[in-house]
Amino acid sequence: MLKSLNTAATGMAAQQTNMDVIANNIANVSTAGFKKSRAEFEDLVYQTQKEPGTATGMNSYSPQGVQTGLGVRTAGVQKDFAMGNALVTKNPLDLQIEGSGFFQVLTPDGQVGYTRDGAFKKDANGRVVDKNGNLLQPEIVVPPNVAGLEVAASGEVRVIQGLNDAPQTIGQIDLVNFVNPAGLKAMGKNIFTQTPSSGQPQTARPGLNGTGYLSQGQLESSNVNIVDEMVNMITAQRAYETNSKVIQASDQMLQSINNMR
Questions:
Q1: Cβ(182)–Cβ(81) under 8 Å?
Q2: C or N: which end of the chain has fewer Cβ atoms within 10 Å?
Q3: 120 and 136, same structural domain?
């Protein structure tokens, strides 16, 4: 009887984790470059009272065994790197990756971080940085008093000093791809870091080696579908309630046993 209590408790804990993941998705529905997550579960060890295929007589075997599952646990939280919709801003430093790939930024601790958020700015020295001040890599410095800035689909950055001047190339934006992007570690602030599961970063010009092209003046919105998340939330809530009903039923059965004379 106590097994059902513990089994239902693992189900409630799993659905709580599921709800935490859904809540984070919904909270970031307006976060540029955000990638939604999905909780994945697996069943726990089974208590075997009778092995499947056990011999029951001369040339006869049991067609099934007697195994009782002991619950569920969270196996992982999977990141979905499907591309989000385009949000047109007309800001020259807003960049969207149309396809696979990540921008490279230098974090304050000296490590290279990877992001899909292309909302870049200029700091006091004209260097291109993200919204948290992390330098875009390779570093690009925009000269003062430029009349225009253009980022080509291939990542080449050009500026125009005067209206009658020819464009001048000041840098190149390269992208990074991974064999397993789902293995990247989310650090917050729209930044991922490399792990042994993600594989080594593979740097390439936009549009080459499987990376996407760049689009200037627009951002990639979150890939969270609010309708799907609402449905997932209702499903998680009902599963949590059902597990709590199992605990109540088990408690009532124990109470009946305790009240026997």
A1: yes
A2: C
A3: yes
Q: Report d(CA 38, CA 48) in Å as an integer.
A: 31
pLDDT of residue 147: 86
Q: Same domain, yes or no, for 94 and 202?
A: yes
Residue 134: CA count within 13 A, CB half-sphere:
23
In this structure, what token pair is assigned to residue 103? 């921008």
Q: How far apart are CA 251 and CA 230, in angstroms?
A: 32
Q: Would you say residue 57 lies in a domain?
A: no
Whether residue 243 is found in the same domain as residue 174: no
Contact 148, 216 (CB under 8 A): no
Record the pTM. 0.87
Same domain, 40 and 97: no
Tokens of 219: 């951002």
pLDDT at 40 over 60: yes
The pLDDT confidence band at residue 261, using thresholds 50, 70 and 90, is low
Query: Which pLDDT score is estimated for 1?
Result: 57
> At which residue do the structure tokens 């385009």 appear?
86
CA distance 108 to 118: 18
Phi, psi torsion values for 227, nearest 5 degrees? -65, -45
Query: Exposure of 35 by Cβ count < 10 A (0-12 exposed, 13-18 middle, 19+ buried)?
Result: buried
- Spatial contact of 136 and 119, defined as CB atoms under 8 Å apart: no
Q: Please indicate, yes or no, if residue 192 is contained in any of the structural domains.
A: yes
* One domain, residues 230 and 118: no
Beta-strand runs (E) in 116-181: 121-122, 128-129, 135-137, 148-151, 156-160, 168-172, 175-177
